[in-house]
Each structure stands twice: as structure tokens, then as C-alpha cells.
Design brief:
Nitrilase/N-carbamoyl-D-aminoacid amidohydrolase, alpha/beta, 246 residues, six-stranded mixed sheet
């Protein structure tokens, strides 16, 4: 079974969720992919003091509409609020509308002053593919990757924000995750400036094979997309994922 996947690098307007939604919608339309993955906090930029996005509000309608028109599923990054707690979240958008798919487990640094940690690893379903989710710091935590691998995922999708000088680490993490999960990795990384002191980000959003081989990669500029058509291994070829080494 095949799944077309894209990782996208939106050009973000700080403080304007509506404008950013429109940018996301345009990239979804351009991608032509069933699954489109965006970076961490992509709807606001890495602005830790940004207000939570009300994903039930009309501001999200352009995303629902484009996903309905194209048949895409988008994984976008946003701050959200639930039961009085703020989370860094991955929001799934499809023809039915937006829903919170995952909350960042390993908040760190200045994030602690604003955000609560999520409940832990999770996989979602897209066309029968089990897709494990992660957000930035999660991708560097062995426990998170091991626990996600044990969910039996067919693909690991994540949104990250890295400085330009962290590109080698970004690529190292993607290869390590692919090896641990024995599954492809779709890693969407911010390009261009964003909040939180990220004046020059890494970009180079990429899709990696289950064998940790680079399949497709964007450059370091905003508005770029990398795409690939992935094939899921038959069940008889799947084996239990290994435990990450230290």
C-alpha cells in the first residue's frame, strides 16, 4: 500500500494565525500529497507567548476546505489549551475538520513556564498506516522513540524547529528514528526566522526511508516542499523494532 507524503516549510507571519493558515493551505494544495507535515508551532511560529489557537473557530476553515478539496490530511503545529493547561500540539486537519492528534511529551527549557507535557507517545491512522508522532525535543529522547516504535508504526512524522547550526543533529535524529522504528521518517523543519531566538533555522525538511536513507529533502528557504511516495512493507516482513542504544 502506498502513501504520498510531503514535508512543508511555511513562511510565517508572527502574530497572524489567519495569514499563516492561508500559507499552510497553499502549501497543502501545492504538495499534491495525501499526508502533509508541518513544523513545530507552525501556525504561530515558535512564539512561546502566542495565544492558544482555537482550532474549533472559523480561522481554521481554510485548512478544512483545502483538505476536503484535495483529499489531504495535514499535521500542523499549534499551541492549544485544554482544561486550563497549555500544550504544544500536532493538530490533524482533514475533511472532517481539525482535532488535536498529539501533545508534545518532552517540553524543555523556557517551554516549561508556559506549557504542560503531553501524556506520551501516540500513533494515528491514515489509510491504514500507523503514524507515530513527535514534536522537536521528543525526537532526541530515546525513551520517546523506543515507546513510539513499540506501537508498531509504519511511519514517524514530526515537526521540529532547529537553528541552522543544528542541521547535522536534525539529520542524525531522523536516521536514528528510522532505524529504531524500522519505518520511514517525515520530518518538517522550520526555514527562515521564527520566534524564540531562532533567527536562522535549519530548514531541509526531509523524508527518510526505513533503512535511514534520504529520499527527499527541501532546501533552507521558506515555502519549499519535499515529497515522496512511500510503500508499506507487508505484515509478514515486519519485525519488532529494536531498542535504541544509548
Amino acid at each position: 500500500m502506498e502513501l504520498s507524503v510531503a514535508v512543508a516549510q511555511p513562511s510565517i507571519a508572527a502574530g497572524s494565525v489567519a495569514a499563516n493558515v492561508d500559507v499552510h493551505a497553499a502549501l497543502i494544495a501545492e504538495s499534491g500529497a495525501r499526508l502533509v507535515v508541518f513544523p513545530e508551532l507552525s501556525l504561530t511560529g515558535y512564539e512561546l507567548l502566542a495565544s492558544p489557537v482555537d482550532i474549533a473557530s472559523a480561522v481554521m476553515e481554510p485548512l478544512t476546505s483545502i483538505c476536503a478539496a484535495t483529499g489531504s490530511v495535514a499535521l500542523v503545529g499549534a499551541p492549544v489549551e485544554s482544561n486550563g493547561h497549555h500544550y504544544i500540539a500536532t493538530v490533524r486537519v482533514d475533511f472532517t475538520g481539525p482535532s488535536v492528534a498529539y501533545r508534545k511529551t518532552h517540553v524543555h527549557g523556557s517551554e516549561h513556564a508556559r506549557f504542560s507535557p503531553g501524556p506520551g507517545p501516540r500513533a494515528i491512522d491514515v489509510d491504514g498506516w500507523r503514524i507515530g508522532l513527535g514534536i522537536c525535543r521528543d525526537t532526541g529522547v530515546d525513551e520517546h522513540i523506543t515507546d513510539t516504535a513499540q506501537l508498531g508504526v509504519d511511519l514517524y512524522a514530526c515537526g521540529v524547529v532547529h537553528h541552522d547550526w543544528e542541521l547535522a543533529e536534525q539529520r542524525r535524529r531522523a536516521r536514528k528514528i528510522a532505524a529504531a522504528c524500522r519505518a520511514p521518517v517525515a520530518m518538517a523543519s522550520f526555514a527562515g526566522p521564527t520566534g524564540g531566538g531562532f533567527l536562522a533555522t535549519a530548514g531541509h525538511s526531509a523524508i527518510w526511508s526505513a533503512e535511514s536513507t534520504l529520499i527527499a529533502e527541501a532546501g533552507n528557504e521558506p515555502s519549499q516542499i519535499a515529497r515522496a511516495v512511500l510503500k508499506r512493507k507487508p505484515v509478514r516482513e515486519l519485525a519488532l523494532p529494536p531498542t535504541l542504544d544509548s
